[in-house]
Amino acid sequence: MVIKYKASNLITDFDLNSKTALQELSELLGTEIKKGTILTEQQCNIAFEHYTKQAKTDDFANYLNKKEEVKEESKPVENKKPQQDKKTAQPKQNKKPQQAKQDKKPVQQPKTENKNNSNEPLKRADGTIVERPQPKKHEKTEPVQKQERVTVTVDTRQTNVNMDKFNEKYDELAKTKSFGGGQRKNANIGGKQKFNKNGKNNKQNPFAKKKQETEAERLERLHLEKARKAQLKVQIPEEITVGELATRLKVTASEVIKRLMMLGVMASISQVIDFDTASIVAEELGAKVEKEVVVTIEERLFEEVEDTEENTEERPPVVVVMGHVDHGKTSLLDAIRKTNVTSGEAGGITQHIGAYQVVASGKTLTFLDTPGHEAFTSMRQRGAMVTDIAILVVAADDGIMPQTIESINHAKAANIPIIVAINKIDKPTANPDKVKQELTEYGLVPEEWGGETICVPISAKMGTGLDDLLEMVNLTSEVSEFKANPNRRAKGAVIEARLDKGLGPVATILVQNGTLHKGDVLIAGTSVGRVRVMTNDKGERIETAGPSTPVEITGLTEVPSAGDLFDAVEDEKLARELAEKRTQAIKEERFNSYQKVTLDNLFSQIAQGEMKELPIIVKADVQGSAEAVKQSLEKLSNAEVRVKVIHAAVGAISKSDVMLASASNAIIIGFNVRPDPVAKQDAEHDQVEMRMYRVIYDALEDVKAAMKGMLAPKFREVELGFAEVRAVYKLSSAGTVAGCYVKEGKVARHAKIRVVRDGIVIAEDEILSLKRFKDDQREVMAGYECGIGLEKFNDIKEGDIFESFIMEEYRD
């Protein structure tokens, strides 16, 4: 139990003069002290030390003698009380100061008797005589009854006084309360409150709600007031709201708004103000301003490790193959890999970017294949930025072409060494010297002519000079000393990305530094995810991928954009927050149009001044193609009309694409994809035009001709219907036969068949046989089953869609 020790208790315990003691205490403690002032423990220690030093004695034996004399003097006074009033006598230890004063009254004698007998000795109860103590000279002589009082003795030999010693009497008083002891003013201190039958405390004052401020609370309040008056230091960011500024300045928002109004700035509590304005307001309010350094999410998320020679190791070089369209880039890589890639591309043109690893002379090389068509400029630029060595393929019979010049510029901008591969030297019209002469015009001087550019004559078709080319690549790699740190989190670039129906978003990435592990969290652009499956260029599943390793990963939330940089991070929550921030920034760039438009009526609307912008939605099978088509279409803009691709993504054309096109009055262009049945119905209902292409030339030419008003009569595709493959039969006599169910329209014998798998066009072929049971049929209507055999395509699987269509000529 904590007992409050007041100044009056101190005066009583030390037997001090009240007025003099209060003045001394006020000067000693530095604050005004009254009798009722509650002293803190620190203040008590200071006061005790002061008064104990005043009462110190040099002769300890003399002090003890005086103490014994005082005890002897007090005995007659204490013993007289039982004679006067035996009934009210109590034990000595239970006597209180109040009772002692009452006991003095029976001892008093008449004044005349006091004067006559003031020097007479006192008699004890046993008859012994004790002499009265004589007063000192400087003290006034007082009557006997005033000398007869209880003396409280304090041991003044201690410098550190224990507070509990002076609280003993309060503990005793608290104990006596339960026995109905003597009445005192604050009888309820330290005990439980008693309530009457009405549930109210009789002694409680309902108006005394506020507690008296203690000295500690008062000192704390003064300290806070002093701190407020001291100069406040605040940190202010580049932008801050008025309410936040008021909170940091520890003032009300109205005060900040008033200061802003004086500066001519009208702002509400939620309005954002810049650093300069906020700093002026803060300085006027007496604060010292410091600019707050804002740490971005990227700085908190991405690991910044400086690679040194001690923690780096040699890595395989990344080689990009660049050049003009149809100069043999893919054939060269095909010859190196000893596989056939070109045959799978529409029109023999590389549509997608690929990454592969080969081993030459015991060393691993990573190759990137880039398209050569002008539409894929950004893909060639990405290939140059993420690689170490560029192989420039130039046909010996064609020489330098526009995309060859562009490739040279990309490689020079990326500051990477160039190795020229002069291809097709097996042709009779080949002229390697002419190629070398043209190269000098662009700063590439061959080594034979005293320059630094390595030129290797090859024939990708015949396999001539390939070993020399790979040897030169290894030599260049050794000279450059390409190194990376495998003992850090992975970072690199997205080479290609696509949407797979079964696997979801699939991305081909190139690890440039660090090591990528299965289960790592990646962020690439607006896409975040955890690596679930990692596959190398041979289709094998791997657990880790070191520097310069191309891998295909799954597990991302969405399809990233080709060329996006990726980082492996630890905090997935923070990565998703950053991706959401990036997505929000992209959404702000979208816009909508109001009037519907088709390629057929585009020129007439332009002539009437009704059309100033052509919105287009691009859907492709892979992200790189979608980006290439988007950029090529936007380059067709002229002074009269601007082509704007409002949405470019991968995957089949869906209902949401048609809804966006309908709302934006856009045209949908599909590149190697088909619409699903629901999207096709919605497009017909909303009169949204959809154009499907397999070669980028056709899409560009159609849009360009429509813009110039030269959309000439031509053949167009008329869909007859489609059938779903329910079973596949392999017959020795007829080859592969698909057991189909016609779901819509009809399948005609003379029509063409387009094979669609997961929204992606796999092949286009002619019908070899169309039978129902054992009978040949000219056409099979919806709701019937039939067997369909194709002329060339045999890789048919259950679930494939056969779209039946014919080509017909039409005129506007």
Concise account of the structure shown:
By secondary structure, this protein is α+β, with helices and mostly antiparallel strands. It is built from 25 helices and 36 strands.
Can you characterise this structure?
With 812 residues, the protein is of the alpha+beta class. 32% of the residues lie in helices and 26% in strands. A 6-stranded mixed sheet has the order 11-12-10-13-14-15, sandwiched between helices. Helix 17 links the parallel strand 13 (389-395) and strand 14 (418-423). Helix 11 (242-249) packs across helix 12 (253-262), helix 16 (377-385) packs parallel to helix 17 and helix 23 packs parallel to helix 24 (677-686). The chain is elongated. The protein starts with a strand and ends with a strand. Mean pLDDT is 76; it is low at 76-118, 136-148, 177-204, 339-353 and 372-376.
Topology:
Blueprint: E1 5-6, H1 7-14, H2 18-29, E2 38-39, H3 41-54, H4 60-84, H5 97-103, H6 111-116, E3 122-123, E4 129-130, H7 144-147, H8 163-166, H9 168-177, H10 215-229, E5 232-236, E6 239-241, H11 242-249, H12 253-262, E7 272-274, H13 275-284, E8 287-291, H14 297-301, E9 313-314, E10 318-323, H15 329-337, E11 354-360, E12 363-369, H16 377-385, E13 389-395, H17 402-413, E14 418-423, H18 432-440, E15 454-457, H19 466-480, E16 483-484, E17 491-500, E18 504-513, E19 516-517, E20 521-524, E21 527-535, E22 544-545, E23 549-556, E24 565-569, H20 572-587, H21 602-607, E25 613-620, H22 623-634, E26 642-650, H23 655-664, E27 667-671, H24 677-686, E28 690-693, H25 696-707, E29 714-731, E30 735-748, E31 752-757, E32 760-772, E33 775-776, E34 779-781, E35 785-790, E36 801-810
Parallel strand pairs: 5-8, 10-12, 10-13, 13-14, 14-15, 25-26, 25-27, 27-28
Antiparallel strand pairs: 1-2, 3-4, 6-7, 9-16, 11-12, 17-18, 17-24, 18-23, 19-22, 20-21, 20-24, 21-23, 29-30, 29-36, 30-34, 30-35, 31-32, 31-36, 32-33, 32-35
Helix pairs in contact: 11-12, 16-17, 23-24
